[in-house]
Design brief:
There is one protein chain. The protein is mainly beta and about 425 residues long. The protein folds into three domains: about 40 residues; about 90 residues, Immunoglobulins (Immunoglobulin-like, Sandwich), CATH 2.60.40.10; about 240 residues, Immunoglobulin-like, CATH 2.60.40.1190. It is about 10% helix and about 35% strand. It has four helices and 22 strands. Strands 10, 11, 12, 13, 14, 15, 16, 17, 18, 19, 20, 21 and 22 form a 13-stranded mixed sheet that branches. Strands 2, 4, 5, 7, 8 and 9 form a six-stranded mixed sheet that branches. The longest helix is centred in the N-terminal third of the chain and has 27 residues. It is elongated and about 120 Å long. The chain starts with 10 loop residues before the first helix and ends in an 18-residue tail after the last helix.
Length: about 425
């Protein structure tokens, strides 16, 4: 008779089978869990591809902000780009800023990832930052930021003058050799009533003004004319050269005097009184002058000047200043005896550039802005052009009377 062995099977006899089933169940749950959390290629049956793990790198465009509108005053202003990153700073990869999905505008080999980008035109733009290896393969990407650039209509123009004066301007330039590539000539008019040197700008409205808005020294630090820029007015008579500079400066700093003036916030004027004779000479000679002017610190340090070249003691220079909100004003008269063998006359054409030095509390110059589009303080070949015009007494013309030598009319309205 066949025996029934099942009735002799205890729970202990079945334990190995139960254990195996339990382990298989746990393995299935474990497998399903990891497939959800870590979708590696072998779980999906796809061939494994060797790729760099990108989730370890965090890249964020900190500036510009999304949909930010930049209202720029001129083509020299820049859009500040700043990128923050995690881990990529210690890698051997490069960081590239890509504009509108195709143009690389900056490549960083190491932090800090900051760049002042100057747009070619107004418009809508998008940027993204890509972390790439030596083969230009993208390892990780930042967020994409869309922004726009607009240019305002704020420009500095010469005052409309009479036909006689406009003819004189054309005549002066036609008969002289000047560096047209160094900017539009500055026209300085003879004054029959000298301006009062008091640090105020109001009475200068009659004279032509020129913008000092070209970054020329350490221009990589330039972002906006709100940081540093200015306007200069000039005039002259038989005794003096007169000027007034209204400077926009968000942080004013001047602790220096004497020959150290231009280590702080200051204005430098460079003249070449024999432009035609020095046209192909890039270095200073006896007819050139570099003069530095300081507004002081509006406390213990008074406004002052220093003739840096040629080395000589300043004679009779008067400097006054004031500190309106957001900047400062320097006004000065400079006797012609401070120049070497020069007396001004109608239709004279000189080399000339006005430069603002900005420090922002740094130990040295952070940025220099000039009236000329290019300027090297050691190279007179970068100077712009200054033209002396005797257009009659434009002050008398403004009041409706006839002054000495007056044949000019002007539409300028004097600020009251």
């Amino acid at each position: 008779m066949r025996k029934n062995y099942n009735k002799y099977t205890s729970i202990l006899d079945r334990f190995p089978f139960i254990t195996v089933i339990f382990i298989i169940g746990i393995a299935i749950v474990f497998l399903l869990f990891f497939r959800t959390k870590f979708p590696f290629p072998f779980f999906s049956g796809k061939a494994a591809v060797q790729t760099q793990e990108t989730t370890a790198y965090s890249i964020l465009i900190d500036s510009p902000l999304s949909d930010q509108v930049f209202k720029l005053a001129n083509v020299n202003e820049a859009v500040p780009i700043s990128i923050k990153s995690k881990d990529s700073e210690t890698s051997d990869y490069k960081l590239k800023i890509v504009l509108n999905g195709k143009d690389t505008i900056k490549t960083f080999n190491s932090p800090p990832y900051e760049y002042n980008w100057t747009p070619d035109s107004a418009g809508d733009y998008k940027i993204v930052a890509n972390l790439v290896d030596n083969n230009d393969k993208i390892i990780a990407s930042s967020n994409e930021v869309a922004f726009s650039v607009e240019y305002t209509s704020e420009t500095v123009e010469t005052v409309s003058r009479s036909m006689d004066i406009e003819t004189k301007k054309t005549e002066a330039l036609a008969k002289s050799e000047y560096r047209s590539q160094n900017g539009t000539p500055v026209f300085s008019f003879k004054c029959y009533t000298p301006p009062v040197i008091d640090g105020k700008i109001d009475e200068w409205a009659l004279y032509d003004k020129v913008q000092i808005a070209n970054p020329t020294i350490k221009k990589e630090n330039f972002t906006s004319i709100a940081d540093c820029s200015g306007i200069i007015y000039t005039c002259w008579d038989d005794k003096n050269f007169y000027f007034a500079v209204q400077v926009t400066d968000d942080v004013y700093s001047q602790i220096y005097t004497g020959n150290q003036i231009n280590n702080g916030d200051s204005v430098t004027l460079v003249f070449d009184t024999d432009l035609s004779g020095d046209f192909n000479i890039p270095f200073y000679n006896s007819d050139d002058s570099q003069m530095d002017f300081s507004a002081g610190n509006f406390s213990a340090i008074k406004p002052s000047s220093f003739i840096y070249f040629p080395s000589k003691t300043a004679k009779g220079i008067v400097v006054k200043s004031s500190q309106p909100k957001g900047g400062y004003i320097i006004e000065a008269s400079v006797p012609w005896e401070n120049f070497v063998s020069f007396a001004p006359k109608d239709l004279d054409v000189l080399g000339f550039t006005a430069t603002i030095f900005d420090t922002d509390n740094q130990e040295s110059t952070e940025l220099a802005m000039s009236s000329s589009p290019q300027f090297d303080i050691n190279n007179t070949g970068t100077l712009g052009t200054l033209v002396f015009i005797d257009g009659g007494d434009i002050t008398a013309t403004e009041s409706g009377t006839s002054g000495s030598g007056d044949s000019a009319e002007t539409t300028a309205k004097k600020t009251k």
